[in-house]
Amino acid sequence: MEKTCVQESLLKGLMIAFEDLKLKTNPVAGDSVILDVLALIFNKKMQYYKGSKHNWNNNMNGMPEVRTQLIEKFRSMRGFGHLGAYLEARVSTAGFPPHNTIKLFLDAGRDAVPLDRFEGPKELKRTLEDDIISVATAVMKNMGAQTEDALKKLNHEEINTVRCALQHIFRQLITSRRDATNGFYEFCRSFSLKLITSQSLPLKLYGWDSVNELVDISLEMAPAPKAYITSGAGVSLVNGTFVYAAKVGENGFVPPNTDHKYEYIVPASGKDPNEKSKTLTLFKCTMRSQQKWWFISEADANQPGTDKDIDYYQQKSKKHEEIVPPSTGWMTCRTAGVDPPPYLEPKGVMVPTGEEYNTMEHQMARWAIENKVVELVLGSSIHREIVSRSIKLISFLVSMCTKDEPLEETSTASNGMPNACCLNASHLQLAWKTCSSKLDAAVSAEVYHLLVSILPSLPIELAVDLLNIIRNSCSDCLFEVAEFCSALASSSEMDDVVYFADEVRSVLLTLLWTVLTHPDASTLKCYDKIKSFMTQELRAEPIGTEQRQTFLDACKGVMKQNASSNFCEETAALRMVRLTRFILEACPREQAISIIIANDKELARLVFNELIAYLGRRARKDSSLIKKVRKLCNMYLPHLRESCAHHLSTS
Predict the structure, then answer these.
(1) Do 136 and 238 have their domain in common?
(2) Angle of helix 441-454 versus helix 478-494 axis, rounded to 10
(3) The domain containing residue 319 runs over which residues?
(4) What is the pLDDT of residues 164-213, one digit of tens each?
(5) How far apart, in Å, are the Cα atoms of 309 and each of 231, 301, 335, 449?
(6) Number of domains in the chain
(7) pTM
(8) Are 403 and 422 in contact (CB under 8 A)?
(9) Which of 303, 329, 347 is the last residue in one of the domains?
(10) Which long-range contacts (CB under 8 A, 24 or more apart) does 263-269 make?
(11) Could you tell me if residue 467 is inside a domain?
């Protein structure tokens, strides 16, 4: 009786709220005073849905199905359509409900979205979706119409709850209403832009948190590759092109939460007339431990996906590798696999023709470039907290530099061109201009960190441009250049992986050498740190051998000049001798010996000549030393030079 009483009371309340809502759709009729009652009926946390009475049902779960039935009743009466019209008429007015009430309406809207298996005409399904979208659209209009002063007064957590509730609705609708879903994310980007361009620092920081969430969502919603090209596998038949073989929707997009699968048909060799082609499968399997594993297997004809499959290679995926298969990290299966495991190269994306450059990633990148968001970060109003929060977006824009495959001659794309919206050289120039402007040390430190974090991922052309820009400013901005090099050295200490291409490493070494040979280099606190970093980079082959020789040739040129000069800056001369030793110590033993004895022991003679020239310059300043210097030179230096050269050549 109690259960029935509660159920009937809730239904009566729903009907009263519905009738009142219909009457109050027009603002002239006044605001609904019982709209909060409708919100309480939709609130799944209320006690009448939890079920404190043990005899209401047997499983102690309360009555969640009653709420579902009420939402379906409200939907069938076109209640969400009336609610959307009511809210639309009160956008930017005092009559618009507060955030906590709106959140409950949106939660109900999410639960009311018709499922794919909806039993009824397609026209009815679309109408019901339109009703729910009208509620969401009114909420977005009201959020977007808020002034900066109004936004300052709002609790960021309240805004987040509404935005997340909207997101839940459109994630439910993405299969059937992709345009509406794209419109929602367009609103999110516009709202974030409004926040990050405001005059309030708290709003800016909150806006940047929203931008980073949008980047994560864009990456999460990236379409799966059309194919994977496997290569390098010990089992030769595995090397080939695995084509997408999972479910694709009527609109050409892959439905959400689809387990991606790829197949490669290996043709018969033709040697045996009875031989049949084989179908290899690249698929994901959930193990008993709930861990996701990827397999490259030959499926059993009668019982695919069981232990009867012939497994060649497998991969225990990390969390970020569960959606699509990773390129590396594969292991060889003991049953049929042969080392080495393959490398997987993704090709294309699973979208309809013409939509290749309109994915969520491309929309996000296009928004950032067209609204000059990077310039906003590094412009006149730069702030260290904003720079630190922008790293995720800028790193994302770096990844878009090489995201797309070039268009084929016969292909067309209605939504852009390959790699059209991404980080470019002007952004890097602006970043370095900010560092070299000497505005604020804390800001510069954040920009150094930003540049260092993206440098390994930059395309070779952009990385070389950045390092050349920094090197060319060394004469005027030695301290700033050295600080960048120091930040790069600190990053390298935390990551032992050698990740620079030869072209980039060559320019990087030239930059480090420019710093170390600067006349004021000895005043730098990070001088030894830069030397240590350069030693590490000099030992990377094959570029290291060439660069070590180049730098030693430069040392020899300066020592020749110093030895023939009567006037020389002794500090600079001594630094060059020390740098010569530094480069030699970075050489493998065989290369160091060959360099010292090359050209009739030229380097050894240059070092001794530098010493003789130094003693001569000292003697000219003190005439009493002249005779002593000459006597020492005549007695010992020729013998010492030959002896050392002989020792070095035989050691």
Answers:
(1) no
(2) 50
(3) 227-347
(4) 999 999 999 988 899 999 999 999 999 999 999 999 999 999 999 999 99
(5) 22, 9, 10, 49
(6) 3
(7) 0.84
(8) yes
(9) 347
(10) 264/230, 264/240, 266/237, 266/240
(11) no
